[in-house]
C-alpha cells in the first residue's frame, strides 16, 4: 500500500492515533487484503436535576469491511462498507444504518479519489482536529449539523453521492468534493412552520491544510450546498447552505492542542437551541467554536492515560441563544489502546433566546472496545 493512500485510510474515519482497532484479516495475498473490524461502545449519563435510570446506551458501535488492492505502477485501490448498529437492542432491534460506502484509487504523485458515501473534506481535513472528546463534542464545528444527523445531506459530515479528490504538494494538502442532487430527505428530519421538504441540487466543497512542520497545522474549509425548500402550497424557498471553518492544531511532544471556528448560513436547525423559532426551522446565521487541550501520560501505568479539557460553543447570531459547554475528562486506554474507559464532566453553559439559563451539568461514562 503506497504511503499517500495509507495515510488517507488512517485519517478517514479515525479520530486519534490511539484508535488502533485490531481487525480480523479475512483474506490476504501480496496484492489483496480484506479486513473486518469495528467497535462495541456503551455510555451512561448522569444529568443534574434530571431523574434517569442511567442504563448504558449504545455509543457509536459499528462494523466495517475493507478491501485493499495494490496495482502496478504505484496505484492502489480501496473499497469500504461501514454500518452502525445497536448491539444492546434498546428498542427491540439492532437499529442498523449505513455510515460509509465508498470506493477509490490512489497514487503517491497523483493523489486520492473516492466515490460514494464518505467522510467530508470539511471533517476529515479540519473538523476532526477538535473531535477528541471520547463521549461528547463535535456539536459546534458544523460537521454533523443540517438535515441529517450524520451531515450527509448538506455535505459536511458523511456526504452521500459524493466524489472527492485530495493531494499534497510540499507543505500543502488540498482537496475538493462534489455532491450530486438528492430530494429524498431523511424521514428523521422534523420540518417546522411552512417547510415540508428539501431538494438538494448539488454541494461543492473545498479544503486546504498548511503544515510547515510536523507539529503544526493550519486549515480552512468551505461548503456551498444549493438547496431549495418546499413550502406548503407548492412554493419554493432558498435554503442554500454556505459555511466556513478555520482550524489550528499544535502537537508538541505528549501534548495536543486544537481550535476551530466556523460560520454557518442555513446549516443549523432550530432544535439545536432553546427558544429559537424560525418560519422554516432553519437558523439563518450561526457561529461555532471548539477547542481541546490534551496530555498523554505514558509509562506511569499500563497503557496510556489521557487528561483533557475543552469547550464547545454554538451561537445563534440573531439572539442570545447558545448551545455551549466546558468539559474536563480522563481516559485510560489498554490492550494496545483498543479498550477505552473514559469519564467526562460536562459543565453546561447553554442559554435561551432571552439569555436565561436552561443548562444542566452532567457526568458521562464510556466503555469502548475496538476489534
From TrEMBL:
<dbReference type="GO" id="GO:0015288">
    <property type="term" value="F:porin activity"/>
</dbReference>
<dbReference type="GO" id="GO:0009279">
    <property type="term" value="C:cell outer membrane"/>
</dbReference>
<feature type="domain" description="Porin">
    <location>
        <begin position="11"/>
        <end position="328"/>
    </location>
</feature>
<dbReference type="InterPro" id="IPR050298">
    <property type="entry name" value="Gram-neg_bact_OMP"/>
</dbReference>
<dbReference type="InterPro" id="IPR033900">
    <property type="entry name" value="Gram_neg_porin_domain"/>
</dbReference>
<keyword id="KW-0732">Signal</keyword>
<keyword id="KW-0472">Membrane</keyword>
<protein>
    <submittedName>
        <fullName>Porin</fullName>
    </submittedName>
</protein>
<dbReference type="InterPro" id="IPR023614">
    <property type="entry name" value="Porin_dom_sf"/>
</dbReference>
<dbReference type="Pfam" id="PF13609">
    <property type="entry name" value="Porin_4"/>
</dbReference>
